[in-house]
Amino acid sequence: MNTTGTGEPIVIVGAGIAGMTAAFRLQQAGHPVRILEAEDRAGGRMRTVERRGYHMDLAAILLIENYTQMLNLVRDLGIEDTTLRTNNVVGIRRDGRVHHVRANKPTDLKSSGLLPWSSVPAMRRLQSDLNKFGSRLRWDSDMGEAASLDTETAAAYAERRLDKDFRDYVVDPMSAMFFNSPPDLSVVNFLFSMPAVNSEWFNFHDRVDTLTTALAARLPVETGAEVTLVEETSDGVRVHWSRAGEPDHVEEAAAAVVALPGPIAARLCPGMAPASRTYLENVPYVPDIHVYFGVDNKPSETATCVLFPTREHPDLGVITFNHNFAPGRAPQGHGLLTSYYRYPWAIRHWDSDDDKVVELTHEVHRQAWPELARHIEAHQDMAYVQRWKNAVILRKPGDYARLREFSRGLDPRSRIQLAGDYLAFSATNSSLVTGERAAVRVREVVTAGSVSVGRG
């Protein structure tokens, strides 16, 4: 067994956006840090893969200008020149036609023809609710204040406060952005997503992992390092990890931040209070399969993404036109498109091989958007399938109340702090914020020299 470390560093488990943000903020404050990442590269779900000149952002693709904390991080890294304001036109299919809405212009819902004029009162009621509840729906929140709103599904809210057209052609396709449908989704997710997209958008010129690559370049990241146990000791933390072909490693550290999906964090931290471990073990992630198509002739569609109500197709949720987000996603004159499904489709086809998934996606395109299907098949240059087992968290009514109780049960004095999307709204910026929050708590514990005895 190889024992390393002096007890001084703070170990970060996981080199996704939450973990690396925590490490960067701790490093800024003068603390030595060390990141252990099981994969062969850093980035987590904020990674980009290149094939034949196409840059495929694997999970995070849509970035909005009210991601204040992310923009602050970009500034602190000195990489502002890698970003630009981007197209924020969203398309929604209805009756075989794409209706275009600018994300920061909700009045486009009226002028686009997507909704009838009879839906104007529903729009006003929604805007009134957003004005009333907006202070409870913040990126820097642990969602505790939102728990009081978490009493019904998005479908039930639409029935109670909106109207049938609004339910079918706004609430339903917005739910597809969570790979879900309104009857399964907490109203909090829908309400949170409305002001979130009511904003200008930004992105990185060529690839979304510009941010995580910049972080990794400034931090000591140990890749291929699979952590097996994180335990608190009398004066610090002990981290056990392994790598193929090497003796097992044990590192003594001043503290640790575990920035991994909830069920994995529960397995690595057996000293956590039983109620906290049970919550983490049951964080309701849903899987996602999405399919990229590179085409040698850019489609004429101007939207960044087109949403599909269930009435238009029961399985297809969103097609993104990645080349419309920012330049550099596809070679000059080419296009890059990605098809995303509601999660039951991903469950049904999880074990299908990639060729079968591509074939099935072509068939779905023929059903949902025949003209685009013909274009993709005539000009296909590349296809790539990405699977995420823990894609997003399926929040049903009551889940945010349970999250509030879980958050209140965590010990802020513990030398093991958590970070990740399960601690807030399931989005990139929220994950980043949980990393910053964990860094603050770790700094306080290490600086005070305190040791938590009763975790949770």
UniProtKB/TrEMBL annotation:
<feature type="domain" description="Amine oxidase">
    <location>
        <begin position="17"/>
        <end position="442"/>
    </location>
</feature>
<dbReference type="InterPro" id="IPR036188">
    <property type="entry name" value="FAD/NAD-bd_sf"/>
</dbReference>
<dbReference type="InterPro" id="IPR002937">
    <property type="entry name" value="Amino_oxidase"/>
</dbReference>
<protein>
    <submittedName>
        <fullName>Protoporphyrinogen/coproporphyrinogen oxidase</fullName>
    </submittedName>
</protein>
<dbReference type="Pfam" id="PF01593">
    <property type="entry name" value="Amino_oxidase"/>
</dbReference>
<dbReference type="InterPro" id="IPR050464">
    <property type="entry name" value="Zeta_carotene_desat/Oxidored"/>
</dbReference>
